[in-house]
Amino acid sequence: xxxxxxxxxxxxxxxxxxxxxxxxxxxxxxxxxxxxxxxxxxxxxxxxxxxxxxxxxxxxxxxxxxxxxxxxxxxxxxxxx
Length: 81
Hints:
This protein is mainly α. Helix content is 65%, strand content 0%.
């Protein structure tokens, strides 16, 4: 049985993981999002004030964000990630 590009890529990923590489930090989206949060926080436009959602408001917040995560998941699957 011949091994194609997919097999070679998965072998390379295994080698990277065995060398201690963390694939999480190789994602440019994570780095960009972290930079945006850092800049907003440094500029005073984002505050981590300790307020937490309780009860019904947390359900409303979750229902608002659910379609965003579902669309993101579907687009990622279609993109082949």
